[in-house]
Design a protein that fits this description.
Blueprint: H1 2-34, E1 46-47, E2 53-54, H2 62-70
Antiparallel strand pairs: 1-2
Length: about 70
């Protein structure tokens, strides 16, 4: 009589596995919807001439470029 009982246990295990998978997918979608995200632009960091990390892009100084060209 192990046959019918064995089928019942297998059925319970598969149902439990499917339920767990659905819960995991639900959690994943909730995290994706509620994440602040921001994308690639929010992850970019710049280094200024003193070696400090900033979130603002460096400002190009044209005076230094003119001095380099005049020395050649």
């Amino acid at each position: 009589m192990a046959g019918p009982n064995n089928r019942f246990i297998k059925k319970q295990k598969t149902e439990k596995r499917l339920k767990k998978r659905q819960e995991k997918e639900q959690k994943k979608s909730d995290r994706k919807e509620n994440s602040p995200g921001g994308g690639f632009e929010s992850m970019i960091a710049y280094v200024d001439k003193f070696g400090n990390i900033t979130s603002e892009p460096p400002v190009e100084q044209e005076e230094e470029k003119d001095e380099d060209e005049s020395s050649k």
